[in-house]
Structure formats: C-alpha cells, structure tokens
Fold this sequence. Notes:
Layout: H1 4-15, H2 19-37, E1 43-49, E2 54-64, E3 80-82, H3 83-86, E4 98-103, H4 109-137, E5 143-151, E6 157-161, E7 164-168, E8 184-195, E9 199-205, H5 209-219, H6 221-225, E10 228-236, E11 240-247, H7 254-259, H8 264-272, E12 277-282, H9 287-294, E13 302-307, E14 313-320, H10 325-329, H11 334-343, E15 346-351, E16 355-357, E17 363-365, H12 372-377
Parallel strand pairs: 2-3, 11-12, 14-15
Antiparallel strand pairs: 1-2, 2-4, 5-6, 5-8, 6-7, 8-9, 10-11, 13-14, 16-17
Helix pairs in contact: 1-2, 2-4, 5-8, 9-11
Amino acid sequence: MEKILDIAEAIGHEKGLQPEKVMEALKTAFVQTAKRVIGQNFAFEAQIDEDTKNIKIVQTITVVADDDEKLQDEEVAPAYISLTEAREYDDQVELGDQLQIDHDLEDYGRTAASQLHREIEYHIQRLVEDEIYNKYKSKVGTLVSGRVTRVDAQNNTYIEVDEIRAVLPMKSRIKGEIFDVGDHIKAVVRRVNMDKENGMQIELSRTSPKFLEALLELEVPEIAEGSVIIEKAARIPGERAKIALLSTHPQVDAVGATVGVKGVRINAVSQELIGENIDCIEYTTIPELFVSRTMSPAIISHVEIVKNEEGENEKAIITLPADQKSKAIGKSGINIRLASMLTGMQIELLENDAVTTNEDGTVEEKKENVDALEALFS
Length: 378
C-alpha cells in the first residue's frame, strides 16, 4: 500500500479528524483485513515506514521445539512455529524467539483489496461518529439551533444541526408549538446516546430549565460574562417560570439587568417560550428569606424551615394572611409548585387566623387548618 501517510492526512482533512487518529484507524483496518484473509488466530501488527510512506503487516510468532504439544492444539497453534520451519526464514533463530514474518496484502488479490476497503470505510466511519459523539456529549445542556427537516406521525421533530440530525421529541416541545419543515428553531442538547443498532442519537429539549438558562445567557450580556449568575431555575413549560439570580458585582442589579429596560430582555426570552411568564428572584443563602421570595407575588408573614434527620432542609411551613393564600397557591397551584421546585422543599401554607400564641410563647395550630400543598396534589 503506497503513501498511506498521505492518505491519512487527506482523510483527516476531509473529515475534520486528527491525522494520528486516522492512522490508528487505518492500522486497525489493515490488521482486521489480515486476520480475515490470512488467519483469524494469527497475531498481526501494522507497521508504518515513514520514509517510504508504506504500510506492512507483520505476523509475530513464537518459535518452539518441533515436538512441542502447542503445535498440535488447533486453537493456539497459529501463534507458534516449529524450530525447523522457523529456520527457513532465519537460520539464526533459537527456541523462544519471536519471529516476525512480513505479509503484503496485495499478494492476496481482489479479496484482500475488497475486504480492506470495507474495513477502512467502517473504521473511519466509527472514528467520525466518535468525534461527533464526544463533541455533542460536551454540549449537553447548551443551546443549539437548526432547521426542521421532518416531522413524523408522532410529532417528533427532526432538526439538522451542523453536520448531524437531532430529534426534538413531542414530550420536549412546549405545549401548543407547531413546527413545519424549513423552520429554524433553538433548543438545548438534552441527551446523547450511542448504540450499535441505531448509531448516535441526539435528543433536544425546549422544556428543560436549561433551555431557559441558555436563552437568558444569549439575551443578557451580564449573565454571559458572569457578573450575574443563574443559581436555580424552575419551569412549567409554556406557562410560568421562576429563576433565582445572584450578582457577583456590587454595581450590578441581578434582577434589573435580567429584566432589562421596560422588560425588553425578559420579554424577548418569554416570546421564544411562547409567552411563558418569567419571575426573576434575587437569590440568597438564607433559606427563610429565599422561600419567602419564591412565593411572590404573595406577601408572607413567617417562614419556618423543618430539617430532616440528615440536617437538610426538607420542608418550609409558611404563615401568611388569608387573603394572600390564593396568590401563594396560584392558578392551578402553579406558584406553589414552582416555589417548591426552586427551593427543593415541600411547602405547607398556614393562614394567620389559624395560629394562636399561648401564654408560654408556643404556637398552636387550629385543627381545621389545611395543608395547601397536600390538598392540591392529593
């Protein structure tokens, strides 16, 4: 095989691959071809002569005595050669030496050439897929955009993103969204899978909180440069979202910067999310204060944090005026659900008039008090 190094460089340039990796793939292709046309059980190695830019197949075989039992064992015999036969190649060889025998695949005719072509094609394709897999595996949670190429009967949307085709499942679309072939859409990479049967599969999402975060980073320079950090985000796609923001610069207002003048920035993101309302909250490490902020627009009187046995915040008991209860719960329970998702805690609501303070200062709840969260989801 002539000028194999030039072939590796050409393939690498065409496919966008590193020549070194292409070379390893080619060497593997040569070895596999040798095994198929010369002997499956032989030990072969592909060696490159960088001066002549040729490749050769070398069979490594161990020299044993003429009466060695290994020569009679069909499974291991190909790895051994008798001393008498070995001296036909090298009259100086001794027992236990590793004899190397050169093979030229061109000597094996069209069968070898055809097999080599298939092997090279297969291993280069695997290399290309591995490169793309690693590239998009590192992009999980990041924003990509592409053109819709097909929408199937299950409303799964297939999108051409650079050199690959990704799928946006029906479950990962915002409610009410309809896409047509040719539409350009944005989404985040949710999952990248590789299996032998289906090859590489890239799944996108427009319902993940990561999609909201990526859109905000695209729209708000302060988030992109790091002076504002999105600590947490929670969404009920297409309806409402809450994001907790933290400023890393004393002169930057995290909420104000994200909302923008007259809400221009947050409205642009909301428009991409089919009118999804986005509540911006200033993040704090004080759990009581953070819980109180997540319950906006409801006005909260008191927050008590209940810890579990491991000392982690498990539940927040919120006391609030009776007229604020509906605001705290929100339409169809959306506000309290988002607050629970954002804080990672179960939330219980307690009306002010359902609490009395005893003479000793302890708080007593009336029996008719209702756990709002439990009532909503039971």
